[in-house]
């Protein structure tokens, strides 16, 4: 059973799944819109959460939140399911496909053999849509891919029941009911307000623009604290979090700027368009940061001076973003 | 980032399977979507992460050949797993998996337990226990 599914590529998997699923149900939302209304942009530095001994950095809100916030704000009812074993999960999927309903699900990247080998680490929160089954193989719309692909029963079952943190446990979801009418304007402002609030007004040093500043300060001391080899590994991890698959460039800053651009046009608000241009500039600075960091990683030599300079660039970014999101908060507060 | 500045570095790890989507600005400053086949800093960072993995695999392989560890250790590293993850797949405990990384305990494993481990790594029991093959793929 195959349905006519319109696949569009997106930068980030969660936005893309929401956008593609809703398009099937007759709601047209572009990826930046989903990201902005769902308040996806964020920054956290988590030195106490170590993955293979490398401190965690996130340029976005944690997985699942974008979809949740977006559906709350637009008023979409979503059915979410979780399973105890792969056979049950796959049966439930087959039933939904027989009804002609595409299903979004959580998978582990490690088992998705259509992706390039270099990307296949154990990342267990990748979203894909399965929209059909042909000759025992499932038809997959993976938002980061240019076209639709397919995957075998065994691989999909493995991917849905991968172990490790977090366990997908065969989670799948689909919209039960989409609203006939909804207030886009209100949803836009709520999304903007929450993002700007979280970026600037959480009184903790590790989150938002304060987190960027903190990280910049810590980074300057990395080489003397942990040694050159480790410092370069940590820096490499930072680049990967910022630029690897799914960020649309500069750690989601460009997607968000695109959102502000679209929102500004939709609401006829020149202030938003102006702020979008400013965010583009600070995003460019983050790209520069990744570029210089990449040079340090490539040459495999570092002296404290280079790390100090990198810290300076990051601190400058944090100051720029602080100004932008402060202004954004002022604009959105009265709406 | 301007539309024409979106990097298209030929040297990448995408195997031609993937061209990622980027958001960039056109001449008026409005956003458009542009595909990119790769960017050097990102490739460097990714290669660096894989170098660490490959180093660990190589260390594990040498340990197995020297008889200091069981092939289980090699396969864990090869699949970028942790003992905890392997324990979850093979429905046992993390400390048991760590024990089984020692040749003494590994050699006493039941067929059933070996099959569980083989299932975890999606290989056959013969492949799992074959040390000779590890010796051969010298780099």
The shape of chain A is globular
Helix content of chain B: 40-55%
Radius of gyration of chain B, in Å, reads 22 Å
Which pair of chains has the greatest number of interface residues, and how are they split between the two chains? Answer: A-B, 51 and 38 residues
Task: Tell me which CATH architecture of the largest domain in chain B applies here.
Answer: Orthogonal Bundle
Low-confidence stretches of chain A: none
The CATH class designation of the largest domain in chain B is: Mainly Alpha
Helical run tally of chain B = 8
Low-confidence stretches of chain B: none
Give the neighbour order of strands across the main sheet of chain B: 1-2
Report the order of strands and helices of chain A: HHEEHEHEEEEHEHHHHHH
How many helical elements of chain A? 11
Structural class per helix/strand content of chain B?
mainly alpha
Summed up, the domain count of chain B is 2
The CATH topology of the largest domain in chain B comes to 434 Repressor (Amino-terminal Domain)
Overall mean confidence score, pLDDT of chain B: 84
Distance between the termini of chain A: 47 Å
**Kindly state the mean pLDDT of chain A as a whole number?**
85
H and E string of chain B: EEHHHHHHHH
Structure description:
With 335 residues, chain A is an alpha+beta fold. Chain A folds into 2 domains: 8-76 and 180-335, no CATH class; 79-177, Cysteine proteinases (Cathepsin B, Chain A, Alpha-Beta Complex), CATH 3.90.70. Chain A is built from 11 helices and 8 strands. Chain A has a 6-stranded antiparallel β-sheet with strand order 3-8-4-5-6-7, sandwiched between helices. Chain A has a two-stranded antiparallel ribbon with strand order 1-2. The termini of chain A are far apart. In chain A, 48% of the residues are buried. The mean pLDDT of chain A is 85. Chain B is mainly alpha-helical and 139 residues long. Chain B folds into 2 domains: 3-38, no CATH class; 48-136, 434 Repressor (Amino-terminal Domain) (Orthogonal Bundle), CATH 1.10.260. In chain B, 53% of the residues lie in helices and 9% in strands. Chain B is built from 8 helices and 2 strands; from the N terminus they run ββαααααααα. Chain B has helices at residues 40-65, 71-78, 83-89, 94-100, 103-106, 111-120, 125-129, 131-136, and strands spanning 20-25, 31-36. In chain B, strands 1-2 form a two-stranded antiparallel ribbon. In chain B, strand 1 and strand 2 form a beta hairpin. The longest helix of chain B has 26 residues, at 40-65. Chain B starts with 19 loop residues before the first strand and ends with a helix. In chain B, 32% of the residues are buried. At the A-B interface, helix 8, helix 9 and helix 10 of A face strand 1, strand 2, helix 1 and helix 3 of B. Chain A: Residues 12-143 form the Butirosin biosynthesis protein H N-terminal domain. Chain A: Pfam families: BtrH_N (PF14399), DUF4872 (PF16169). Chain A: Residues 154-328 form the DUF4872 domain. Chain A: InterPro entries: BtrH_N, DUF4872. Chain A: It comes from Ohtaekwangia koreensis.
């Amino acid at each position: 059973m195959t349905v006519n599914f319109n696949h569009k590529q997106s930068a980030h998997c969660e936005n893309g799944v929401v956008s593609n699923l809703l398009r099937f149900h007759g709601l047209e939302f572009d990826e930046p819109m989903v990201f902005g209304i769902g308040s996806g942009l964020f920054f956290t530095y988590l030195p106490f959460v170590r993955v293979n001994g490398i401190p965690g950095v996130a340029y976005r809100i944690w997985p699942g939140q974008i979809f949740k916030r977006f559906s709350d704000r637009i008023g979409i009812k979503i059915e979410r399911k979780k399973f105890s074993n792969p056979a049950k999960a796959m049966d439930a999927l087959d039933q939904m496909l027989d009804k002609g309903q595409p299903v979004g699900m959580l998978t582990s990247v490690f088992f998705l053999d259509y992706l390039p080998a270099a990307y296949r680490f154990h990342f267990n929160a990748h979203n894909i849509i399965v929209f059909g089954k042909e000759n025992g193989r499932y038809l997959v719309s993976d938002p980061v891919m240019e076209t639709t692909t397919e995957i075998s029963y065994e691989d999909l079952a493995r991917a849905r029941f991968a172990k490790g943190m977090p366990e997908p446990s065969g989670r799948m979801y689909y919209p039960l009911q989409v609203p006939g009418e909804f207030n886009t304007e209100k949803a836009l402002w709520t999304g903007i307000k929450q993002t700007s609030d979280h970026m600037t007004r959480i009184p903790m040093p590790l989150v938002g623009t304060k987190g960027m500043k903190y990280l910049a300060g810590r980074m300057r001391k990395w080489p003397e604290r942990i040694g050159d080899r480790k410092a370069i590994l940590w820096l490499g991890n930072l680049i990967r979090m910022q630029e690897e698959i799914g960020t649309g460039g500069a750690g989601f800053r460009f997607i968000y700027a695109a959102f502000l651009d679209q929102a500004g046009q939709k609401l006829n608000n020149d202030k938003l368009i102006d702020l979008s241009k400013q965010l583009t500039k600070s995003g460019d600075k983050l790209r520069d940061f990744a570029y210089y960091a990449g040079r340090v990683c490539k040459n495999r030599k570092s002296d404290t001076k280079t790390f100090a300079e990198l810290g300076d660039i990051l601190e400058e970014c944090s100051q720029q973003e602080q100004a932008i999101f402060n202004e954004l908060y002022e604009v959105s507060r009265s709406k | 980032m301007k539309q024409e500045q979106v990097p298209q570095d030929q040297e990448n790890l995408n195997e031609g399977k993937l061209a990622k989507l980027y958001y960039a600005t056109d001449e008026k400053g409005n956003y458009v979507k542009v595909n990119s086949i790769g960017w050097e800093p990102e490739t460097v960072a990714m290669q660096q992460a894989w170098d660490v993995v490959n180093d660990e695999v190589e260390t594990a392989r040498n340990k197995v050949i020297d008889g200091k560890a069981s092939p289980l250790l090699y396969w864990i590293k090869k699949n970028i797993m942790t003992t905890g993850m392997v324990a979850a797949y093979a429905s046992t405990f993390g400390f048991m998996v760590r024990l089984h990384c020692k040749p003494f305990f590994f050699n006493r494993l039941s067929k059933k337990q070996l099959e569980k481990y083989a299932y975890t790594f999606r290989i056959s029991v013969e492949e799992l226990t074959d040390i000779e093959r590890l010796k051969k793929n010298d780099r």
